[in-house]
Amino acid sequence: MNVIAKRLTNLTLAIEKELHNCGRTPQSVTLVGVSKKQNLADIKNAIEQGLTNIGENYVQEAQGKFPFLPPVTKHFIGHIQTNKAKTIVELFDYIQTIDRPNAALAIAKAARTMNKQLPVLLQVNISPNDRFGCPPCEVLQLAETINAQSHLCLEGIMAIGPLSSDEQEILDAFLLAQEIFKQVGGKTLSLGMSHDWRLALRAGSTMLRIGSALFGERKG
Ligand SMILES: *Cc1c(COP(=O)(O)O)cnc(C)c1O
Questions:
Q1: What does pTM read for this prediction?
Q2: Which atom of ligand 1 is found nearest the CA of 160?
Q3: How far apart are CA 74 and CA 41, in angstroms?
Q4: Which helix H or strand E contains 30, and what residues bound it?
Q5: Best mutation site among 32, 34, 126 for ligand 1, i.e. most ligand atoms within 8 A of its Cβ?
Q6: Residue 76 clears pLDDT 90, i.e. is over it
């Protein structure tokens, strides 16, 4: 087995074990492999080994890679610049980072133009060192804006944990995200990256976004 195949197998088993400890089923979580700044060969390899979802942050980079990948569900997890909305909607199947009304409206307009029905997540800011994300007090209003768009389907929320080595601080932030998720409703709570996915599962995450723990350190 090559190194990517091994990491994917081990990661999948570790996730299943943690889910079991939480009394949850393996089917209750989707793994999104975050492939930004990773080699095309490694990404292809992971997809061939059974990875069904990938996430990318940068529009130009995704544009260069996607034509060469086997079929896979593509998540946009980067900051939305409204002037790139059309390209984002063309390239991606799922958008996780709707964090303000302007982003919702720009993505909705592009989706309408392309007659594409898009599942989206509302990105909420749960951490003082995060530059993006909707402030918790504005989430319900933004959810209403998204729900009013005919071509967007709001499936839940996404958040990035605080950059911290304090597990309690991370868990508290994730529990805040869980609370907001309950208010918004939906089926998807996208929480958890390479260093904090176990805590995310304990807070009810249904979607993990994992990059370096799967693909290794980012290249370049
Ligand atoms: C880069 C990135 C990830 C993956 O980070 P790792 O620490 O490599 O797992 C997950 N989510 C978002 C939003 C990212 O930008």
A1: 0.97
A2: 13
A3: 17
A4: strand 30-34
A5: 34
A6: yes
CA 107 to chain centre: 17
Query: What is the per-residue pLDDT for 18?
Result: 97
Please give the Cα distance from 129 to 127 (Å, whole number): 5
Measure CA 196 to chain center. 14
Helix 167-184, helix 139-147: angle, nearest 10: 40
Nearest CA to ligand 1 atom 11: 209
Q: Which residue has the tokens 């998720």?
A: 181
Which atom of ligand 1 has the smallest separation from the CA of 210? 9
Residue type, 87: T
Ligand 1 cavity residues, CB under 6 Å: 34, 36, 57, 77, 160, 193-194, 209-213
For residue 220, pLDDT over 90 is answered with no
